Amino acid sequence: MTQDTRDRLVEAALEALRTKGFAGASARTIASLAGVNPGLIFYYFGTLDELLIEALRQSSEERLRRYRPAIEQVRTARELVVALREIYREDIESGHIRVVSEMVSGSVARPEMGERVMALMEPWIALAEASVERVLGDSPVSALASARDLAFAGVTFYLGANLISHLGSDPEAIDRLLVGAERAAGLLELLGGGAGVE
Hints:
This protein is mostly helical. 79% of the residues lie in helices and 0% in strands. The model has no long low-confidence stretch (mean pLDDT 86).
């Protein structure tokens, strides 16, 4: 029953973040969604923040497991952008994008939480860095910025796109931007600047 209760609380925290946002993800709301007493949040997690961090960690790790095999297969710049579009689309549909956005925005005023949220982004940055290194190889583009910097830029774009998408902007704007990036990556490959490895 203990693990079942913890799992229900984590799932309820994710649901609260997806549907009510960071401000609405109160202990009472989460406990109600889980069908348990609010005191169990503090019994199992110590604080509400710990529960929210755990929910983000589990969601992020699940998405990482889902995407790592596909990302590790990427060999060209265009394939990398196509994979990014797929990740973005699925993260919108699953609600993960909302969870990330809410946790990022909610942690702005809480530096200690912000550090932990950023630490949960590190595996994504590392995966992106390895992908950029593999795709660019020794192409001229690799001399413009390090793989780490380009990976950080990609994750920064993802987080920024998440936040912008919740401010009432054109919902198709990010997809159009990614379509344009896909075309640009294809052109880069034709010019020999990001052909990747065969």
